[in-house]
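Z., the sequence and structure:
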Amino acid sequence: MGLYIETLSARVRVVLGQNPGFMTGPGTNTYLVGTRDPILIDTGAGLTAYEEVLRGAIKEANLAAPRTVLITHAHPDHLGGAETLSCISPDALFHKMPRPAGGEPFDTPFVPIVDGQRFTTDGATLEAIYTPGHANDHCVFYLREEHALFTGDLVLGTGTVVIPLEGGDMVDYLASLEEILTRDLGRIYPGHGPVIPDGRAKIEEYLAHRRMREAQVLDTVSRGIGEPWRIVEALYTDVPSVLHPAAEQSVIQHLRKLAAEGKVVLRDAARYELVSR
C-alpha cells in the first residue's frame, strides 16, 4: 500500500487513483490536505482498488473521513470516484466550479465554487482559483501555508497538458498560466506525476513550450502542411503514435488561436492556410 500513498508534507498526503494509462501516467493524484479533518482534492476514476487504498490512507494517518471534497474539473479521472467517496464518507460535500454553459457530465450534486473562495481545515487554508483552458470548469487550489498549488490538469508532473476540443481553449489556458505566475509560488502538487519543487520555473517552462509549439505550427502551415493530423506527424516525431490523437487536439487549439489572430485561415473544413499579408 505504501506504493500508492505518500506523505508529502506535514499537511499533505497523496493517494494514487489506481488508474495508470497513456493519458494518466501512474494515475490520478488525489490529495488529503490537513492534519486531522482532511479536505480531499479530486476523487480518481471510481475504481474499487482506489477505495481500498483511500480507506487505508485515512486509517494509516489516523484521519477523519473527508467531509469536504474539492474537484479540480469534471473529467472522469478526477470526478469519477465521487460515488466511491460517498461510500467512505456519506456526509461529504462536493465543491466544484460550475461549467459556464451548464450541462454537467456527472449526476453528483455539488456546491458551486466561487473564484477566490477559501476552504479551511486543521493546518490548511486552500484558496480556489479559476483556471480555464484544459477544461472550462477547471479550478486550482492554493495552499497558503506552503505557498503551494494543487494544479489538477493545469500543470502535470511530467509532460505537457492536452487542450481538448471539448471544453478546452488555448487562449484561456495561456492566460491561466500567466495568472498563476502572479502568485507567491513554491511547489506544485499536480494532478498526475511527481511533485514539482519549483512551480514558477515549471510554469515558465510551460509558457515557453507553448510559444515554441505555436511558432512551429505556424511555420508548418507556411510550408503548405495545413491539415492538423499532418502537422502532428511533422512536429511530434518523438511522441508515440498512440498519443497523436491527443496531440492533434492541442494542435487544433493552437490553429484556432492563430485563426482568431488573423494569421491563418481554415479552408475546406479541415485544412489551414497562412493568411497573405
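The CA atoms of residues 8 and 179 lie 25 Å apart. The chain has a mean pLDDT of 95.

Let me know what you think.
H.
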